[in-house]
Design goal:
This protein is mainly α. It has one domain. Helix 4 runs antiparallel to helix 6 and helix 15 crosses helix 16. The protein is globular, with a radius of gyration of 23 Å. It starts with a helix and ends with a helix.
Length: 498
């Protein structure tokens, strides 16, 4: 099992480089956005991002998920290139049609979506960037399936650097405003596909298989419903905030959510990119149960340490990144939204088993139910607490989402998850986050010292609660022995990569 975990860690580090690049570019742009965009304009950007997510999910038809599941299926082992070509070309036709419709009816669509026709150019660029992302998902998925983590990361970083450079130039020099973001994303997406064109061409058979496409559409139909329902969970808060509280509260929420998303980008995302192909490979082996159980525990542990850090120092992080004081109060929701990442991770692992066993209809029912609950919570909490209500609505929805998926997944196949350890970590971290607010109004030195002390309490409390097994303590000791000397870091990294 440690061989799989070591492989996962190695690929996670490589994928993490792309995640770090994503977040660094985001952190670099935040001071730029907060300088040139008001909170209300940032709210408009958040509304556009939510709309883009909807476009990608609805018009992507969840085909990349079917491709992910079918690629290593023995029945399609000799049709992998045809499968890739059929999926990619189908999505290309959909994206082209979508963009043409948007260009032809941009003004009425702008009036419908934004209640103002002046955003019609912005709408076109946003749809173009979203369409390219639909196409980008396919080669990115193939890179993951073939475990080409290095190429995946290089292509991602290249696209991000291009995006970053054009955004800075278009905002500062040409004063394009929010349009600059989507123009730059369009340019970056085109260059990404051109860069990967040799890899894409190598994996194409140029044979369109209508039977495969029909079977994939039948397979993903429940997933499309699931995706739309999942979208409601992700973006209903933005839409309800937009129409109930206005762009300013949406801007504060979007800014806090952007910083809280650091957990997903820097840690959870790279780990999932690395580990999911391994989960598929060992699904039919006798190592599955132990591996799945330990993955859940380890991910909770590392996620919660990161979440505690982000939560404890959210106030300081916001003040450093946003010199505009209008944004500062958004730090209140960062702990809430960050904490939701734990339940998102556990939910994804539980749903992964249902996907592989073909229980997509059950997944759809669960997701639709949670999405309806999420809308209800938003309608109840946002009018009372504005963007803070939206944050708690999201957290509560994710907790219930996980509990439902875990319950039904266990009915299909019981995985002996380490429930005592997981509950201990979750409740302990929640209590520490609550305590950290005691220091919110203290002086900077006392605030930082108190929060560092709370951060240390987490692993120490787990140690004295018999959280770690003997073999785990021995591994930690070995890691400390190998890495405590900075002079050996280069050698250790080479050995790890090898």
């Amino acid at each position: 099992m440690f061989g799989y975990l070591k492989s996962t860690f190695k690929d996670s580090v490589i994928y993490g480089l792309g995640g770090v690049a994503v977040k660094l570019s985001g952190l670099i742009l935040i001071p730029l956005y907060t300088k040139y965009f008001s909170v209300s304009e940032y709210g408009l950007l958040g509304f556009l991002e939510a709309t883009s997510i909807i476009i990608i999910a609805v018009f992507g038809l969840s085909l990349h998920q079917a491709f992910f599941v079918w690629y290593w299926d023995p029945h399609y082992a000799d049709k992998q290139k045809s499968l890739f070509f059929t999926t990619l070309s189908s999505l290309g036709c959909i994206v082209t049609f979508l963009l043409l419709i948007t260009i032809l009816f941009s003004k009425p669509l702008s009036s419908l979506i934004f209640e103002n026709s002046k955003y019609h150019r912005l709408l076109i660029f946003m749809v173009a960037a979203s369409g390219l992302q639909i196409l980008i998902n396919m080669p990115a998925q193939l890179l993951r399936l073939q475990q080409k983590a290095v190429l995946y990361t290089i292509a991602t970083i290249l696209m991000l650097l291009i995006n970053l450079a054009f955004i800075v130039v278009f905002i500062i020099v040409f004063k394009y405003g929010i349009e600059a973001i989507y123009i730059s994303q369009t340019i970056g997406g085109i260059i990404y596909l051109l860069f990967l064109s040799p890899f894409i061409i190598k994996n194409l058979s140029r044979r369109f298989d209508r039977d495969i496409l029909l079977k994939m559409l039948i397979f993903v139909f429940p997933l499309i419903i699931s995706s739309i329902a999942a979208l409601i969970i992700s973006v209903s808060d933005r839409y309800i905030l937009r129409f109930v509280s206005g762009y300013k509260n949406l801007g504060l929420y979007s800014f806090g959510a952007k910083l809280a998303n650091t957990v997903n980008v820097l840690l959870l995302g790279p780990i999932q990119l690395a580990i999911y192909p391994i989960l598929v490979k060992i699904f039919n082996t006798d190592k599955k149960e132990r591996f799945y159980s330990k993955v859940m525990t380890y991910l909770c542990f590392f996620l919660l340490i990161f979440i505690l850090f982000i939560s404890f120092f959210s106030q300081e992080i916001v003040k450093i990144l946003a010199r505009n004081m209008e944004y500062w109060e958004s730090f209140k929701i960062i702990p809430v939204l960050s904490f939701a990442a734990v339940f998102i991770m556990m939910k994804d692992l539980a749903s992964f088993h249902l996907q592989l066993t073909g229980k997509t209809k059950l997944l759809s029912v669960i997701i639709v139910s949670v999405s309806l609950l999420n809308i209800l919570l938003n309608l109840l909490l946002i009018p009372l607490f504005n963007y803070i209500g939206a944050a708690f609505s999201f957290l509560i929805s994710q907790i219930i989402y996980f509990l439902l998926l875990h319950y039904f997944a266990n009915k299909q196949y019981v995985i002996g998850y380490e429930y005592r350890k997981i509950l201990l970590m979750v409740f302990l971290s929640a209590f520490l986050i609550f305590l950290s607010f005691i220091f919110s109004h203290s002086t900077l030195i006392i605030r930082i010292a108190g929060k560092i002390l709370l951060l240390l309490v987490f692993p120490v409390s787990l140690y004295f609660s018999n959280f770690f097994e003997k073999v785990e303590l021995q591994r930690i000791s070995d890691i400390w022995r190998d890495w405590k000397n900075p002079g050996k870091w280069g050698t250790n990294l080479k050995r790890l990569i090898k």
